[in-house]
Amino acid sequence: MYYQDVRKCVDDVIKKVGKKIVMGMPLALGKPNYFANEFYRRAKEDPSIDLTFLSALFLEKPTWSSDLERRLVGPIAERIWPNWPDFEFMIDFRANRLPPNVKIHEFFSRAATYLNVEYAQRNHISSNYTHVVRDIIRMGLNVAATMVAKKIIDGKVIYSASCNADTPQEAVRALREEEKKGRKVATILMVNDKLPFMYGDGVSDGAEADMIVDHQDYYFDLFTVPKEPVTVQDHMIGLYASTLVKDGGTLQIGIGSLGDAVVCGLQARQDHNDQYQSLIADMKVKENWPVLIDELGGLGRFEEGLYGSSEMLVDGFVHLYESGILKREVYDNEAIQKLLNEGKITQKVTPEMLDLLVQEEAVRDLLSEKDVALLKKLGVFKGDVCYENRMILAGGKRIPADLSDPAAKKEITENALGEVLTGGVIMTGSFFVGPERFYQALRDLPEVELKKFNMTGVEVVNQLYGGESLRRLQRIHGRFINAGLIATLNGAVASDALDDGRVISGIGGQYNFVSMAHELKDGRGMIMIRSTRMAGAEARSNIVFNYGHCSVPKHLRDIVITEYGIADLRGKSDEEVAIALIHVADSRFQEGLLIQAKKAGKVSKTYQIPERFRNNTPERLNAIAASYKQKGLFVVFPFGTIFKPEEVALGQSLRGFKARLEANKAKTLYHLVKRMFGPDSISALPYLERMQLNNPGSLKEKLLKKVVTFALESSGAIK
Question: For the domain bounded by 2-218, which CATH number is listed?
Fold first, then answer.
């Protein structure tokens, strides 16, 4: 059924499945906002409707809790998300006014968004990404809805799951199985022409859907995710990670400033290798971890290039593609992939390639119609070659389809062979969300290049099962790089929750990639952790002796990277693990950690930290970075920002003011009061104009003006 009115579609869904609705929607970008909102309005109007939303990462425009925040955030929201339709149920959820007949369960959320939201904490679903569909089916899923792109191909309307090939196809297959058992189900596609049309397993004619909603009133601009600033701390972590990536290998990274830092490190290695080598020498990477770099990675440019295999197609992969790093093509054929890996063939088609494919039993000497179709798909044969009654039609000739016949083989190689292999992909992903320039880059890619970015389900990307032989061949030298929060001295990592049980985000696919790194013979899993975090004005170590929660258990410990170096933990004893982590901890906390480890009997009482690891300080890192900043490295927003310079300075200054207020309220207020009676700063004028406080009309506005000026002065943004 096709609809131009979402209300009519919702009417028919309720008629089909009843008033108990358990609706699943994809993570992040691919949610059909208008469809979900209409269902929510019905549930608010009709208490007999029992509505449950199952999803992850509901994208929301920023809100504010004070007049000062409104002045900063309000204009940004109006400028960046002018046409984004809010999820009405999330507005009510934030205001704690969800009706009792509506429930929301997420398996992943924006980091730290719900730390103090009791409802969200109680209703979080802890599930590996590859287990999500299984789990929501058990929760009674009966409606699956997703937003899609569409395109006319060969005169037919074709749909693309675009940003979310991750779970919708798997969910539809599972619902069809439930339908056979008697469950009443509905699957809905909602078209949005703003979505980039992506190729891969998420492309279909729409036959899998019960209902398709398509009307221009429901097209809306995609949610833009602002880029985070990349600090010196982040850049250092990314640089260390970049040394462990092997040319000709496979890469997985995630979203956020640490993911951007890895991309920056790889680009520096590729585009500015002299500076990169000099910087790595100044960081003493080869000096401290020589064997690790030589065995796992390298410092040279990428000649073979990388293949991306990552649940999230982050915008960084497009930057790597533009830099000529993301270029290693993989193929959906074991024989071809094996021969490429072994160096027996290249992408150039040769007569010898036919012999090798016969040896690998990919095709037979006596070619069948199926064999010819495969050879055409791979580009080994030209696209216009035909098979008919054991004959090959090529170059205007009819040739016996028999490679064992020397004369026939000669005719085949002269008339049927293609020039280069076709159908290769450089990136396999499952979902994406990012800045607008990223979406536009995907829209602008020529189709032949866009097809190299293959979108498929997480059941493919996040694990080896279901196609293990081929996936092992494709994912050689896999480097799976993710972020964590806390690492303990036994090698366990906490990434998704605090030790008191409160969920920060969710496990997502991190455990999947950690496990896969251990299963691949040449794969490695890397967890990036900032060595410290700020609690008010106080620094605290993220390398700790123990912690009350873990996302990655100690028996899957592998590599941990901080801004101070690399801790290789795989296959090491508990003492070796503890020592390696202490070596990459901030020096302010090293002795305390060592004392704890010795007291617990995990490190020898005689062990002393070598001098070369005792200078792990922010001051040393900033000193190293200083000269390279002038050469274009350590850029705060390496891939641009949608924020204006005044907004960046205001945001940083006001966050700093808040932190100082929390750390020492009396001292901060004392200095603020002193500032109240000081003269107005001329250099503050553009910032005050942005906050509409340049001409305060009330006592409150005058006070806010002084707060903003004080915050700017305290942060060093103005003098």
Answer: 3.40.1080.10
